[in-house]
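Friendly challenge for the regulars: who can give me the structure tokens for this chain first? No prize, just bragging rights.
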Amino acid sequence: MYVIMLVAHIIPLMDTDYENRFMAIRLITLVFSLLFLAGLAQAHDERPGSVLPYAKNLQITAEDAIKQRLPIMIMFVTDDCPYCKTAKEEFIRPMILSGEYDDKVLIRLIEIDRTDEIIDFLGKHTTMVDFASKHKAHFTPYVKFFDGKGNEIAKPIIGITNKDYYGMFIDDAIESALEKLRQTR
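First reply, four minutes later:
Bragging rights claimed.
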């Protein structure tokens, strides 16, 4: 709405001399550039390549997990799930930004209702929806823990039963997965 009002004030400048017309065009370009950048910033957190690490190539993730001796935590989500939004914004994003989990777990997200192509642990092309179905992720948020070979190594976390303890549930599952990896050395 503010953009329309701003453009409405700028357009009359275009009916005047060359200098005002040039200034009006520059202002309109600036406004639309800022809107475009704001849209990119907003979309930044929702798709691959953002702070939230959506799965693209789980084979590479698995290789990294083996090299670093870390578990892989996959959170299965949907866009329209309010609990998923809570899990992403209040738990996953802070975990990633804090850096405290860098040496504990590799985190990836998969949207169970998207057909985006990904590569699974074995290097096979699949889609997010098919990968989620294979791992019986029918409810969201659903968190599973894997080793570098794609084997489940900790009890999954289904839903957010208690927001006050959800972070603790995740931490406990990460510790359990790390312990399982230590035992298999």
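The CA atoms of residues 177 and 183 lie 10 Å apart. Residues 36-49 have pLDDT under 50 and may be disordered. Your move, everyone else.
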